[in-house]
TrEMBL record:
One of its GO terms (molecular function) is N2-acetyl-L-ornithine:2-oxoglutarate 5-aminotransferase activity. The keyword Cytoplasm applies. Its main location: cytoplasm. The modification N6-(pyridoxal phosphate)lysine is found at residue 253. This is Acetylornithine aminotransferase. May also have succinyldiaminopimelate aminotransferase activity, thus carrying out the corresponding step in lysine biosynthesis.
Amino acid sequence: MNNLAVTRQNFNDWMVPVFAPANFILVRGQGSHVWDQNDKQYIDFAGGIAVNALGHAHPVAVQALTEQATQLWHIGNGYTNEPVLRLAKQLVENTFADKVFFCNSGAEANEAALKLARKVGLLSGHANKNQIVAFKNAFHGRTLFTVTAGGQPKYSQDFAPLPEGIQHTAFNDLEQAKAVINENTCAVIVEPIQGEGGVLPADLEFLKGLRQLCDEHGAVLIFDEVQTGVGRTGSLYAYMNTGVTPDILTTAKALGGGFPIGAMIITNQYANMYAVGDHGTTYGGNPLACAVANAVFEFINTPEVLEGVQQRFDYFVTGLNKINAKFNVFEQIRGQGLLIGCVLKAEHAGQAKNIVNLAGEQGLLALVAGPNVVRFTPSLIIPFEDIDEGLSRFEQALEKFSHELKECA
């Protein structure tokens, strides 16, 4: 069966249609290069949606996985293991946190955080302290709880009735936040940079104001760093750029460098409100995932890698501005580190996916962040020559896009 010949049409035949993948099938990768079934080579600016922090088949990750694969794969949560404890120690020693809960994805990490917030409210002694404040255009995952917390109705409206007690207000609007955060609020969940919502950074004063409001009302401040964490912004975690420390932080994506893993990291004050049996997971914290994450995290958490992320951001922005001077399709280039959003001008609204498809034709993998933003989340160590080649292919895609616009005019 492993030798079965498959085609892109087979996706339509056999897979539940919740995705609309590209018309090619990728079969192998090395560094920031990937190849399809026809041996066409692509430069990877997508990074598995900010997951492949060290690119494809990095020796550090491969060695950690293969070594662990010969020792211990899975034992369930009735036992602990060495890799999970080593990874917990790394996270605790390098962040604000005292405790860690491991799971398999960002959605699961956010689910754990939001459930804990409700427990915090219950133990507060205030009967109605169960309201969660989130922000419009946010994204926190696809479980029913997390998709409701996300502020994008297009992802939740078909699955009503939705969990209650979640209120959305405008991102980066502190006055609106003050109007809804009160004694009934058990938690505020926010992304330091809205990723899926358009690569939109939070204002520092907005985050500081949320911290103060949570302190005043006894609410838990949750930072969703699923996309921004593990070096993506040039700091180990984005909160480190803000001067604001959350009570709970969720992390996933880059944490395993491509191997599925997620985590909720938390202070003792709130961690100890969870009791044995309150929450759990079968696969979370398994030795394979934690061994890989240990190696990836340790590799990234160095001045060389983190400073290199900022250098690559500057390099990307210079190149993108040069391309945009030629085609004039983007209103703004924004983001931090290697989470970059190219915001389309109003006259090109809704065309981000078209541009990404054209980039694919030119041999470049890219992403959208909503209908109006082209997003790049490449490897944190992508070579500068690969950035040059990728931008050259992006320029070719924009040339074709501009040509199509002229034909339609």
